[in-house]
Amino acid sequence: MAIRPIVKYGDPVLRKNAEPVVEITPEIKELVADMIATIDDAHGLGLAAPQVGVSLRIFIVDLSAIDMLAEPKVFINPEIIEKDGEHEYEEGCLSFPGIYQRLVRHARIKVKALNENGEEFIMETEGMAARAILHEYDHLEGILFIDHFSAISRALVDRKLKRLAKSA
Ligand code: NI
After folding, report:
1. pTM
2. Could you tell me the distance, in angstroms and rounded to a whole number, from the CA of residue 120 to the centre of ligand 1?
């Protein structure tokens, strides 16, 4: 298990449409274990494989930073099968250090995915968990949270974004 460096805004891997996982190989299991170590180290709520430079449809959601009882949850080849309602809350992203923004997302979702053993599960959730899953799902589509900002919010962080992209 190793902590992997987190890719920052400006790296083209963050804009790719990630590839489905075809088989749970030892390499995939190692990647998942490394992602769990990485998110724990960074105290993040979510981490998608493209954020460690791997363009595959895998993400981790770990709400233990806000809920002591939460365990990291692995989503492989996820599909959002239902979504409804609205929920607004402040959001950040490990690939955008120092940038936070209140965003409206769906309040409730139903998601289908494979776990780290390749077993399918369906999960219905709401609030922060739903927000984290939707944010991480976007990463697999090459969509970043700044894409949801209003024009004014985006203009306000423009200089920070240029600085991040330059150091990526
Ligand atoms: Ni993110």
Report:
1. 0.96
2. 24
